[in-house]
Amino acid sequence: MNPTDILLSIAIVGIYTVIYIYLQSQFKNDKIRLKLFVKGFIYATIITGFLYYLIKFIAS
Fold first, then answer.
1. What is the DSSP letter of 1?
2. Residue 60 and residue 47: Cα distance in Å, rounded?
3. What share of the chain is helix, strand, coil (3-state, %, to 5)?
4. Against a cut of 0.85, is the pTM above it?
5. Could you tell me which of 45, 60, 42 has the C-alpha nearest to residue 10?
6. How far is the CA of 57 from the CAs of 3, 13, 24, 44, 47, in angstroms?
7. Which residues contact 14 (CB under 8 A, 6 or more apart)?
């Protein structure tokens, strides 16, 4: 499997998870929901970037 395909699948799952958590959250305050969404998106981006470089290092 191509490392790019693995990265794409991880990113898609991460984005769907972040959206699901955002839509299912029980917080009434929009600021808290937006803060959780942004924090989750930043964490997903950092993890995805780390995994990309790890896969790139292993593949080379």
1. -
2. 20
3. 85, 0, 15
4. no
5. 45
6. 10, 22, 37, 20, 15
7. 44, 47, 48
